[in-house]
Amino acid sequence: MATASLDKPQITEAEWEARQQLAACYRVFDMLGWSEMIYNHITLKIPGEEGAFLINPFGLHFSEVKASNLVKIDIDGNKLDDSPYPVNRAGFVQHALFHRHLPDAHCIMHTHTTAGMAVSSVEGGLRPTNFYACNFAGQIAYHDFEGVTVRDEEGARLLANLGSKRVMLLRNHGILVMGRTLPEAFIKHWSLQRACEIQVATASMGTPLTVSDEVVAVHQRDLHMAQVPGGPGAADFAAMVRLVDRTDKSWRE
């Protein structure tokens, strides 16, 4: 993405690029129908700044997020800039936990989509009954609902339940994904959301066909053959940003 001239000299070029990428992601999520009033969060580490990341301003809709109004916070949720907006504690407690303990969790996404919440609220969670669900077989962690995530002491259980996985269904709650890059996290979320949507649709039609473990293994082995060069999700995310740009480029400001 093109780098804009900065009004604040203390913002580095790397931070501005991160701000633009994250702001674009919020607009893409809104375009795809994944907004939840003023709630839910996507956070992104700022390159070259240990313990600093960006989060959406609490009180704004995803469609209002811009590069300039994202809030810069430290690993404890304290604001590192002069943003007039507050930060939702329920947002940064969970995200800061993973950013603190998982060096590869550069981007974290949490949503309350209808399909994601529905699948997280049924026994068995996501089942290998469709193409996208097979992508995640054996790769999804689960965490039982404990109420609004504002208590630090829940963190140990979240980390233990996540283990080495980087995709989680929060039971009765929704989707949580993380990636080494924002596009990687995006394609994980998009694929998981699609898997959940199709599972919900299939459940309304009758008994679903379960894909065998053997076929799932082959499917996951060969998935890389369908990827476009540039890194996981890079081309997918870029395409979505182009769609957003057709109607509104204010996220770049």
TrEMBL record:
A molecular function GO annotation: actin filament binding
SMART domains named in the record: Aldolase_II
Top-level taxon: Bacteria
Cellular component annotations (GO), alphabetically ordered: cytoskeleton
Domain Class II aldolase/adducin N-terminal residues, every copy: 20-200
Entry similarity comment: Belongs to the aldolase class II family.
Name this protein carries in UniProt: Class II aldolase/adducin family protein
Species of origin: Sphingomonas tagetis
